[in-house]
């Protein structure tokens, strides 16, 4: 048997080229996520339960990338996470949050805190429709201390409203003229038909390159598995507005994953954008593309929390996996994501130069404000938790969710030899800063290679192999 050599990011460097690009600003980082979706930055937050729920997905889309909501959630919760992204920065929120007038202030405050909103519309239900009766704003709550009071006694009843067909310009004028932050939309007979908020308009103006769907809402993806509930889950996620469905299995070159790709394509036709994975070989790329995938996810075992290669002895060093799949993907005309193992902007640049269209990030984003969970302080240093989705901890949680929130843990599943690790990662502040740094490094890399687009970047890329001495020379040394 002949043994081929596999390489990864730390084995190589990109050769600099003659360049007429003088500024990082002169390069475009536009990239294809899948056959029909283009992004302004080639970054995707990983579908992991310590990385992407709605908060992360909103930030990723605002920055011009996209987040994929993980699937270790009940169907209802995953759908709700998608809805939360779709509600943000939408000019018209079609389905705004509401409360009933007879709940207490304490209940309303809890609801608002949970949903991350500063005010809420108050409605009465009439024959299944919502009649707008008031609004509870930040100002109404500011000096109220008695949480037992009814919402009806505190809400503002004099409402400025508009009709659902109001233009954005007109809505801006109304918000300005009346110095209000929320403009409910109602039908002629006073039923709620939507909401426009000042915050969404301002955010929209501040993020002109964000990733938007046809309706002007932020884009978001959602992961599904290959079990019995996949069809139902996918259907509801699409109805909630998910722009792309990621079929998420550890070994994507597997007949179940291929059958699921075929089934989703057959059931939803052109209404669905499918990314399938994870894979690491050209044969897998061919089989999944043939089954109907619009995009692929490449990476078996390179992730920071992965132990697949240790536990199974299976995998392909990530740079080689990318280069192998790139040749086949180019023939098939299918974009792909380099998923896992990116430790810095240099690795990102190498992954894209080697042929990936975009990159998925787990570890680097797990320590940010937007990832699920709170940060912890240990002896003055802040951390967040990060875990592999095949770790013992994540699998126990999944068993618990599948059992409807009860039980869980090893007794309920046959979970031995986990293929993921769990632990903590340094707290890094805003995800936006991590993304900005990664993209700045990539832009700089593109200018070193004299290229203005990612396509040119791949064409101009030539790798040089380095030794361990080369690698230690590459990092800071001799500086204390
Ligand atoms: P990074 O390096 O960015 O990688 O943290 C994120 C990717 O790691 C993969 N992943 C796993 N791989 N066992 C594995 O072998 C796991 O438990 C696991 N959890 C996540 C996944 O592809 C993710 O996007």
From TrEMBL:
<comment type="subunit">
    <text>Homotetramer.</text>
</comment>
<keyword id="KW-0332">GMP biosynthesis</keyword>
<feature type="binding site" description="in other chain">
    <location>
        <position position="306"/>
    </location>
    <ligand>
        <name>K(+)</name>
    </ligand>
</feature>
<feature type="active site" description="Proton acceptor">
    <location>
        <position position="400"/>
    </location>
</feature>
<feature type="binding site" description="in other chain">
    <location>
        <position position="303"/>
    </location>
    <ligand>
        <name>K(+)</name>
    </ligand>
</feature>
<dbReference type="InterPro" id="IPR000644">
    <property type="entry name" value="CBS_dom"/>
</dbReference>
<feature type="binding site">
    <location>
        <begin position="299"/>
        <end position="301"/>
    </location>
    <ligand>
        <name>NAD(+)</name>
    </ligand>
</feature>
<feature type="binding site">
    <location>
        <begin position="339"/>
        <end position="341"/>
    </location>
    <ligand>
        <name>IMP</name>
    </ligand>
</feature>
<comment type="similarity">
    <text>Belongs to the IMPDH/GMPR family.</text>
</comment>
<feature type="binding site">
    <location>
        <position position="419"/>
    </location>
    <ligand>
        <name>IMP</name>
    </ligand>
</feature>
<keyword id="KW-0630">Potassium</keyword>
<feature type="binding site">
    <location>
        <begin position="362"/>
        <end position="363"/>
    </location>
    <ligand>
        <name>IMP</name>
    </ligand>
</feature>
<feature type="domain" description="CBS">
    <location>
        <begin position="92"/>
        <end position="151"/>
    </location>
</feature>
<keyword id="KW-0658">Purine biosynthesis</keyword>
<dbReference type="InterPro" id="IPR001093">
    <property type="entry name" value="IMP_DH_GMPRt"/>
</dbReference>
<comment type="pathway">
    <text>Purine metabolism; XMP biosynthesis via de novo pathway; XMP from IMP: step 1/1.</text>
</comment>
<protein>
    <recommendedName>
        <fullName>Inosine-5'-monophosphate dehydrogenase</fullName>
        <ecNumber>1.1.1.205</ecNumber>
    </recommendedName>
</protein>
<dbReference type="GO" id="GO:0046872">
    <property type="term" value="F:metal ion binding"/>
</dbReference>
<feature type="binding site">
    <location>
        <begin position="386"/>
        <end position="390"/>
    </location>
    <ligand>
        <name>IMP</name>
    </ligand>
</feature>
<feature type="binding site">
    <location>
        <begin position="248"/>
        <end position="250"/>
    </location>
    <ligand>
        <name>NAD(+)</name>
    </ligand>
</feature>
<feature type="domain" description="CBS">
    <location>
        <begin position="155"/>
        <end position="211"/>
    </location>
</feature>
<comment type="function">
    <text>Catalyzes the conversion of inosine 5'-phosphate (IMP) to xanthosine 5'-phosphate (XMP), the first committed and rate-limiting step in the de novo synthesis of guanine nucleotides, and therefore plays an important role in the regulation of cell growth.</text>
</comment>
<feature type="active site" description="Thioimidate intermediate">
    <location>
        <position position="306"/>
    </location>
</feature>
<dbReference type="InterPro" id="IPR013785">
    <property type="entry name" value="Aldolase_TIM"/>
</dbReference>
<dbReference type="GO" id="GO:0006177">
    <property type="term" value="P:GMP biosynthetic process"/>
</dbReference>
<dbReference type="Pfam" id="PF00478">
    <property type="entry name" value="IMPDH"/>
</dbReference>
<dbReference type="InterPro" id="IPR046342">
    <property type="entry name" value="CBS_dom_sf"/>
</dbReference>
<dbReference type="GO" id="GO:0003938">
    <property type="term" value="F:IMP dehydrogenase activity"/>
</dbReference>
<dbReference type="GO" id="GO:0000166">
    <property type="term" value="F:nucleotide binding"/>
</dbReference>
<feature type="binding site" description="in other chain">
    <location>
        <position position="301"/>
    </location>
    <ligand>
        <name>K(+)</name>
    </ligand>
</feature>
<keyword id="KW-0560">Oxidoreductase</keyword>
<feature type="binding site">
    <location>
        <position position="474"/>
    </location>
    <ligand>
        <name>K(+)</name>
    </ligand>
</feature>
<feature type="binding site">
    <location>
        <position position="475"/>
    </location>
    <ligand>
        <name>K(+)</name>
    </ligand>
</feature>
<keyword id="KW-0129">CBS domain</keyword>
<dbReference type="InterPro" id="IPR005990">
    <property type="entry name" value="IMP_DH"/>
</dbReference>
<feature type="binding site">
    <location>
        <position position="248"/>
    </location>
    <ligand>
        <name>NAD(+)</name>
    </ligand>
</feature>
<keyword id="KW-0677">Repeat</keyword>
<keyword id="KW-0520">NAD</keyword>
<keyword id="KW-0479">Metal-binding</keyword>
<dbReference type="GO" id="GO:0006183">
    <property type="term" value="P:GTP biosynthetic process"/>
</dbReference>
<dbReference type="Pfam" id="PF00571">
    <property type="entry name" value="CBS"/>
</dbReference>
<feature type="binding site">
    <location>
        <position position="473"/>
    </location>
    <ligand>
        <name>K(+)</name>
    </ligand>
</feature>
């Amino acid at each position: 048997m002949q043994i081929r050599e596999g390489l990864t990011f730390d084995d190589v460097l990109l050769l600099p080229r003659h360049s007429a690009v003088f500024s990082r600003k002169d390069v475009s980082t536009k990239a294809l996520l899948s056959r029909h979706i283009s992004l302004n930055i080639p970054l995707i937050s990983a579908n992991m339960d310590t990385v992407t729920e709605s908060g992360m997905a909103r930030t990723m889309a605002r920055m011009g990338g996209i987040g994929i909501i993980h699937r270790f959630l009940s169907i209802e919760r995953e759908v709700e996470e998608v809805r939360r992204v779709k509600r943000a920065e939408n000019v018209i929120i079609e389905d705004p949050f509401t409360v009933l007038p007879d709940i207490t202030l304490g209940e309303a405050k809890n609801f608002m805190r949970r949903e991350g909103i500063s005010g809420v519309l108050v409605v009465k239900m009439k024959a299944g429709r919502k009649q707008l009766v008031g609004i509870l704003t930040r100002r109404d709550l500011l000096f109220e201390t008695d949480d037992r009071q009814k919402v009806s006694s505190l809400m503002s009843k004099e409402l400025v409203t508009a009709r659902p067909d109001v233009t954005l310009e007109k809505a801006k004028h109304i918000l300005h003229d009346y110095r209000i932050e929320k403009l409910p939309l109602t039908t002629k007979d006073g039923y709620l038909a939507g909401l426009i908020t000042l915050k969404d308009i301002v955010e929209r103006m501040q993020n002109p390159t964000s990733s938007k769907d046809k309706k002007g809402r932020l884009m978001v993806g959602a992961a599904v598995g290959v079990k019995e509930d996949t069809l139902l889950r996918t259907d509801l996620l699409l109805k909630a507005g998910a722009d792309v469905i990621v079929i998420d299995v550890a070994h994507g070159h597997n007949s179940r994953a291929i059958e699921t790709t075929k089934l989703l394509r057959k059931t939803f036709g052109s209404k669905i954008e499918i990314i399938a994975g994870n894979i690491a070989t050209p044969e897998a790329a061919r089989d999944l593309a043939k089954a109907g995938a619009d995009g692929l996810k490449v990476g078996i075992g390179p992730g920071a929390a992965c132990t697949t290669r240790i536990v199974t002895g299976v995998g392909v060093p990530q740079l080689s996996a990318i280069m192998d799949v790139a040749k086949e993907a180019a023939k098939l005309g299918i974009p792909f994501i380099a998923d896992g193992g990116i430790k810095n902007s240099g690795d990102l640049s190498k992954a894209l130069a080697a042929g990936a269209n975009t990159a998925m990030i787990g570890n680097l984003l797990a320590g940010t404000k937007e990832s699920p969970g709170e940060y912890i302080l240990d002896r003055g240093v802040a951390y967040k938790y990060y875990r592999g989705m095949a770790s013992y901890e994540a699998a126990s949680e999944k068993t618990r969710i599948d059992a409807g929130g009860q039980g869980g843990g090893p007794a309920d599943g046959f979970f031995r030899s986990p293929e993921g690790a769990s632990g903590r990662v340094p707290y890094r502040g805003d995800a936006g800063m991590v993304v900005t740094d990664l993209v700045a490094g990539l832009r700089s890399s593109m200018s070193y290679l004299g290229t203005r687009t990612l396509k040119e970047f791949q064409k101009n890329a030539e790798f040089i192999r380095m030794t361990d001495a080369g690698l230690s020379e590459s990092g800071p040394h001799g500086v204390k």
